[in-house]
């Protein structure tokens, strides 16, 4: 059976692993700009039903 990451490790080791992973992740990602090929959808003024419909419409367009 596979072990989960960090299982059996001490708290300091797990903390360092998580902080290191987060530092690496934040260094290669811009959280304020969509990656190339990503569509953005402003749902601010939409109901949940309208938002779901808009997402499904975009997905259908991308597949076409």
From TrEMBL:
Protein name listed in UniProt: (d)CMP kinase
């Amino acid at each position: 059976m596979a072990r989960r990451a960090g299982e059996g490790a001490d708290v300091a080791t797990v903390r360092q692993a998580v902080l290191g992973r987060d530092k690496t992740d934040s260094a290669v990602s811009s959280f304020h700009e969509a990656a190339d090929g990503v569509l953005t959808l402003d749902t601010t003024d939409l109901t949940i039903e309208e938002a779901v419909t808009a997402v499904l419409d975009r997905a259908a367009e991308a597949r076409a």
